[in-house]
Amino acid sequence: MPKFQVILTRDVTESVCIEIEAADHDAATVKAIENVPDTGWELDENLPDDAYVTGVDEIDPPGGLSEAT
C-alpha cells in the first residue's frame, strides 16, 4: 500500500499589545502596522477551525521506485 505525505492546516489567530504614540486613532493604526514586533505574540483564546488538507504527495509509490531506462 503506498504512503502519502499529507499537509494538514488549521487557521488560528495570535495577538500582541503594543503602545504607540500618535496624533489620532488612524495614525496609531498606521504606526502599529509599520512596527509589527517579532516577539510577544500569544495564541488567542479561540478554538481553531477544523483542520483541512492543503497538500498531498505520494512518497512511496506502489511497486517501489522504478529506474529510468
Description:
The chain is an alpha+beta fold and 69 residues long. The protein has one domain (3-60). The chain contains one helix and four strands, in the order ββαββ. It has one helix at 25-34; strands spanning 3-9, 14-15, 42-43, 52-60. It is elongated and about 70 Å long. The model has no long low-confidence stretch (mean pLDDT 85).
> What distance separates the N and C termini?
25 Å
Query: If helices are DSSP runs of H or I spanning 4 or more residues, what is the number of helices?
Result: 1
Major sheet description:
2 strands, antiparallel
The helix/strand series, from N terminus to C terminus, equals: EEHEE
The best one-word shape is elongated
What's the mean pLDDT score? 85
Query: Which structural class fits the helix and strand makeup?
Result: alpha+beta
Number of strands: 4
Q: List low-pLDDT spans.
A: none
| Helix content estimate | 10-25%
Number of separate structural domains: 1
Radius of gyration: 22 Å
Q: β content, as a range?
A: 25-35%
Strand order of the largest sheet: 1-4
